[in-house]
Amino acid sequence: MAAGPDLPPAPGDRLAAAPFYYLRHGETDWNREHRAQGHNDIPLNATGLAQAEAAQLPLARCDIATICTSPLQRARATAEIVNQTLRRPLVVVDALKECGYGVVEGSVRGNWFPDWRRGGLIEGAETFEGFMARALGGLNQALAHPGPVLIVAHAGIYWAIQRYARLERTLLENCRPVRHDPPSADVPGRMTTVIE
After folding, report:
1. Does pTM surpass 0.85?
2. CATH classification of the domain holding 132
3. Looking at the annotation, which residues are catalytic?
C-alpha cells in the first residue's frame, strides 16, 4: 500500500541513490496567477525566459553530464535555454510531466487542492498517489542516464523528490537550481544545496 502524502514512502519506493541537479521551469503567466497548469502547455513569459537565461551561469559551474526534461514547453524551453551554455545531451522523459489536474486545470488553487492531496478525486485528474508513483518512475528513469543529471521539470515533480528523499516540503522557486546528494555514512539524510 502506498504512503499518504504526509507519511514516509513504503520500503520499495526508492529514489535512485545518485547525485543530481534539479531546476523547476521558468515562470509562466499561470504561475504568476497561481493557476493549476497541469498538462496545459503554457509557455514561459518574459520573466521565465530571463530566469532560464540567468540559470545558465550557475549551472555551467556544475559537473552535469545529461539534461532530462519534461516534454511540456515551459520545462523543455527552460532546458533548451540552459543547454545553450551546457551543451549536454538533452533527453525528454514523458513521466516528468506535471500532474494532470483534469477539470480544475486553469483554476486558481482553492479548497480542492488539499482535499486532492489527501486522496480526494477530481474528474479527469490523476490521483495524488498515482502521480507520486509516476513522478518517482520518471525521476528514476532520468537518473539512469549518465550523471550527474540535471532534471528540468515542475513543482509537482519536486514534491516527489521531497517525499522520497524525506525532505521538508517547501515550494521550490521557478528556476532556482538545487543539487541533491544521496545519504552517506557522514551525512545520513539527502542533502539539498542551492546553486548560486
Report:
1. yes
2. 3.40.50.1240
3. 25, 98
